[in-house]
Write a structure and sequence with these properties.
By secondary structure, the chain is α+β, with helices and mostly antiparallel strands. The chain has 3 domains: 168 residues, 3-Layer(aba) Sandwich (NADH Oxidase); 136 residues, no CATH class; 99 residues, SCP2 sterol-binding domain (Nonspecific Lipid-transfer Protein, Chain A, 2-Layer Sandwich), CATH 3.30.1050. The protein is 41% helix and 16% strand. It is built from 19 helices and 15 strands. The strands form 5 sheets. It has a 5-stranded mixed sheet. The chain has a 4-stranded antiparallel sheet with strand order 2-3-7-4, sandwiched between helices. It is globular.
Length: 450
Amino acid sequence: MTTFAEHPTVQTMRARAAAGTSPEAPSVIDADWLRNLCLEAGADDVGFVAIESPDIAAQKAEIIGAFAATKAMISFVCRMNRENIRTPARSIANVEFHRSGDEINDTARHIVSVLQDLGIVARNGAPVGFPMEADRWGSDKMWVVSHKPVAVAAGLGRMGIHRNVIHPKFGNFILLGTILVGTEISAYGQPLDYNPCLSCKLCVAACPTGAISPDGAFNFQACYTHNYREFMGGFGDWVETMADAHSAKDYRRKVSDSETISMWQSLSFGANYKAAYCLSVCPAGEDVIGPFLADRIGFNKAIVEPLRAKQETVYVAQNSDAEAYVPRHFPHKTVKRVASGLPRQTSIRGFLSGMPLVFQRGRAKDLNATYHFTFTGREEVKATVVIADKKLRVIQGHEGDADLSVTADSETWLRFLRKEAGLPFALLMRRIRMKGSPRLLIAFGRCFPA
């Protein structure tokens, strides 16, 4: 057996180093060269962001956690075919999403491969679509790096009222990719000095769940419960529905044959969105805006109205704003109550950070109150929750005067949220204590039906 020093590979590499023939990775990557590489690899546009950029400060920790060597990021976009996304036929639209996602992943892989051959360490920031980090379900974000903030910092677009990045040329008909690079780049992009969003509110009109409000508010739960019905949490709800069914007949009473087949298609060929109408109707972007400018009425009839007129099932959480919204605005669509599909609460910090995602403004319209929460036991946390003027604020620690103070054992509170324990028994055992009107806790619960 040879020693380490006698190993042929070791000897070859040491000989190259002594002769000065070993390739050296550049200390700085030329931005123009890198841009051409990305475009040749399949990207339709690209921008670069330094890890120290203040525009991604909120994402820095997650980026470094994903790749400690990161010094810069490559953000790139691939265009989708607009007409495929605009059709009411979900099969056509979803194949476009799937294939465009494959292109993003293939492009990222090619770029990383070329950089690797040059001795530059780089890593795909996160695949588009799935798989995701399933072990994080219910405790943290399942994706590795957030593409949207990086794309905005790179100057590839701005967030529209519908919460999608709008590229100045391609509009929102894009998918995003991010590559983390361990070498600095010679020049970086800057955020756009204007927002391509036209504030036309067509996304508001087209959304079947009312998730997008004219004033800019966004109901995450409404969007997630319907649009992502066949993803993650919605799939879990379907499995539990099947498990609870007493017979095949009982199952078919709860789940239609078409719903079962739709779920099978998602499992077989890739998870399908129930809607992406906000993208479909968006006229922003230089390549997109022409027909809208030429004939707004015609644009509405050709693109917006077919989506609004589509007869379909809209999935809503019970007692949510979406459940009230759909019959008023889309009486021809079928409303079906389902579990929201959001993760069960496993931590107090998750409960507090998740509140803005499930807050229902319509259910809070008559509530103006300040709540102090003091959690004890496994998690010792203090927080203030203010609900006023149909808005929610969650503050670390106690702030202001409380209309209702709640002191609770953290495990008991989480079991209460998961409906594994009743409030009366918890109050009787003094594992949950209140100071103030109990009606305020009931009003609080109405704002978070999930």
